[in-house]
Design goal:
This protein is of the alpha/beta class. It contains ten helices and 14 strands.
Length: about 350
């Protein structure tokens, strides 16, 4: 932890124990990124959650550090010794909460097999090609795909320095993944809290530098890991990936419901495998149906971010660790357009709601 943060946090006292929050073990993570600081707290051992009291004190103490302009304080939900889960306090409204300087975008799907990781990787590369500093956190702990998608399967672990975990860089994108930690093919047999801890450490302890955007490759489904990501990390918005099939859209709706319940804005939908492009004649065939994701977005009043075609070269490049977004062909251009659309929606989502001034009589 940054020494400046340590000094600041020791000035804040926990009411229950009378000790500073560091000595009391209340700080689960703390990080400075650019001009923003993020502090993650655990609930007290006894008594009610005290975020309302601690937050202004932490904001004052940490905000006094030179160069810090924004402070975000969040509290996780852990179990006490009796096994009862403490309730996390209601989240601060997203249009008024302090936010880090970077954009954090989650890419999710309700089920596996729709190409979510492939879409995430190529969106990251497309954003990097547009001149942005991009990070990608592979939160799919049980099935990490990022190392292969970026051609980084021979990385021997992640290095940790005083600055934090050093991400792997490939194709202009900074990467962290459980695939860099375990041996290829080795299963990860972890319970939910261990997965949540690994995800939190990846985000909080990684030396990201000062990226413009961090993409999170979400695990499929709506379980503990997804809930922890949506609740504990300052996510600015979520991109939902689906194929045109009704079956995939059914599960995509579950992912959208999770983000709605945790107050994470949905930036829009991407339709993957929208059409098959014949490598010989170039003709397109809608083998999985046509327009289902666009129609779903329109029905829900959400932006439709783009269609990604299905092409044999996309599969070959993914297996070879050469993202299709590196190419200036129909597939590469589709990813570039979807990336620009997602970025625009994320920037809009971060803007505070307008203030309406009423004249007085």
């Amino acid at each position: 932890m940054d020494q400046r943060l340590k000094s600041a946090l020791t000035q804040v006292t926990e009411q229950q124990s009378g000790r500073d929050i560091l000595s009391a073990g209340r700080v689960d993570g703390a990080q400075i990124t650019g001009d923003a600081a993020t502090i993650v707290l655990t609930p007290p051992v006894a008594g009610k959650p005290d975020l309302d009291r601690l937050q202004p004190e932490i904001e004052t103490a940490v905000g006094s550090i030179d160069g810090i302009e924004r402070v975000r304080v969040i509290m996780t939900a852990h179990k006490d010794s009796g096994g009862q889960a403490r309730q996390k306090p209601a989240p601060t409204p997203r249009d008024t909460a302090p936010k880090p300087a970077r954009l954090i975008i989650a890419v999710a799907s309700g089920k596996g097999g729709v190409g979510k990781s492939t879409v995430t990787a190529n969106l990251a590369v497309a954003l990097a090609r547009q001149g942005l500093k991009v990070g990608l956190m592979d939160a799919d702990v049980y099935g990490p795909s990022v190392p292969r998608l970026f051609g980084a399967t021979d990385v021997e672990g992640l290095r940790k320095t005083d600055a934090g975990v050093q991400p792997v860089t490939a194709h202009g994108v900074k990467l962290v993944s459980m695939g860099f930690v375990v041996k290829p093919g080795a299963p990860i047999v972890w319970r939910g809290p261990m997965v949540q801890g690994a995800i939190r450490q990846f985000m909080m302890d990684t030396d990201w530098g000062q990226p413009d955007v961090i993409l999170i490759d979400m695990p499929p489904g709506t379980g503990d890991a997804q809930l922890a990501l949506a609740q504990d990390l300052p996510v600015d918005g979520a991109v939902i990936v689906s194929t045109p099939q009704d079956l995939a859209l059914d599960d995509a709706r579950k992912a959208m419901a999770l983000f709605n319940q945790t107050h994470v804005p949905i930036l829009g939908l991407v339709e993957n495998m929208a059409m098959f492009i014949c490598p010989n004649c170039g003709e397109g065939t809608y083998i999985f149906g046509h327009g289902g994701t666009r129609a779903e977005a329109e029905a829900l009043g959400l932006p439709f971010l783009g269609e990604i075609p299905l092409h044999p070269d996309l599969r070959k490049r993914s297996d070879a660790g050469e993202p299709a977004a590196l190419m200036d062909d129909p597939v590469g251009r589709a990813f570039a357009e979807a990336a620009r659309a997602a970025l625009t929606e994320a920037e809009q989502a971060r803007k505070p709601a307008p203030i309406i001034a009423f004249s007085e009589d």
